[in-house]
């Protein structure tokens, strides 16, 4: 009896402890379930900002790059980091002036958008893993601006080369900011909070998506992990591209394929000197329906429009693991036949002179560049448009041609290797995007020259030749030794008489980037067709070319 009473007393004393332990266990399990559910939902969060109009989708729609390569944490730039960087590191901006977002790099902001807080054309936003992130899209390289006179409003033109955008300077900005010791959470987080306060005061339009300020958990994560990860990602990416002198690019230009080599894992420290300079102008992207089957890119290394689009989108982060198929297809469908170049202003065209120029074009230019409007060629018409002219014949600077190698062609054809080989599947089965798009790459080839391109929207594609080494059409009709050796690019005021952007003079020098044709890759020799025409016929030809 005594033993029973002793054990009973002990159990009675332990009862409350057991109840408390059970209660703690229940709450712990509930916390784990709630936390696990929240974590699962957050990690699966993947919502792009969407747009009703195709034109707005082209300007701001996602290709998937915000997800990061392999969807790892941290590559898509968190929105609040993106808007804070120019304010926190103005000393690395080209004009060292904060308060203008990324306008100093020639990025285009629509007039009704606040550059401090809203995105420029060519940047998209997606909420990934609970964080609003931004990254490039196709429009960043294929949207430009034109002004009729100094001080006039800029016309934003979709599909034309990004004539004011200096991508090299932007990448250098990221590298310098990430290398600065002040890129750390105890300085970045107050800057981010200041931008969030500015957003509250700015009263931005409610009909446009605006990211919410960081919550308590996000502030904790970014203070202790996110900022460090972002810095590491920027340093990793820019260090892989450190072999490229991006200060040599300038507005509207890029080394097209050497960054791709680095991102594909090529050991660029072993690359030959000959292939390390591939600077070229950004191209226009209109009328793609009529360019299917032509040799595309400056050197004609691919004949598939879909592959051209996807290889270009690789630079926006649209890789096999990150691509947003439906979004990219929507852009491709718009570019296929809806994207058209605007007409040259009629008041600046002498129609009688242009009519005379038509016969000059037919005699001296048509065989390489084809018809003025689509279709640019017809079967059996004898035109060489969309084919490659050997470098020995065209005689233009060969650096861009030499930078593209056979090994790179092989590597590119391995992209999307797990996808169907039939490139037409997705266009024929548009609802089956998960299985039929993208198709496996199969068309990249090394060529021996530069492609004869159609001339649609020619007036907006200045400066001319593949490397932008001739500022306007009038100079293009002069022998190479009569073309300017030094001029300025990135100034968007138009020269309607000579057909090109203003590239000489005080204002062009102040606002533009110095282009030196003596620098490797910038040579302005070659393409001396029509240079022996008499002055009157040159005037007529230029007038006719305005109508393209």
Automatic annotation (TrEMBL):
<dbReference type="GO" id="GO:0004130">
    <property type="term" value="F:cytochrome-c peroxidase activity"/>
</dbReference>
<keyword id="KW-1133">Transmembrane helix</keyword>
<protein>
    <recommendedName>
        <fullName>Cytochrome c domain-containing protein</fullName>
    </recommendedName>
</protein>
<dbReference type="Pfam" id="PF21419">
    <property type="entry name" value="RoxA-like_Cyt-c"/>
</dbReference>
<dbReference type="GO" id="GO:0009055">
    <property type="term" value="F:electron transfer activity"/>
</dbReference>
<dbReference type="InterPro" id="IPR051395">
    <property type="entry name" value="Cytochrome_c_Peroxidase/MauG"/>
</dbReference>
<dbReference type="InterPro" id="IPR036909">
    <property type="entry name" value="Cyt_c-like_dom_sf"/>
</dbReference>
<keyword id="KW-0472">Membrane</keyword>
<dbReference type="GO" id="GO:0020037">
    <property type="term" value="F:heme binding"/>
</dbReference>
<feature type="transmembrane region" description="Helical">
    <location>
        <begin position="20"/>
        <end position="41"/>
    </location>
</feature>
<keyword id="KW-0812">Transmembrane</keyword>
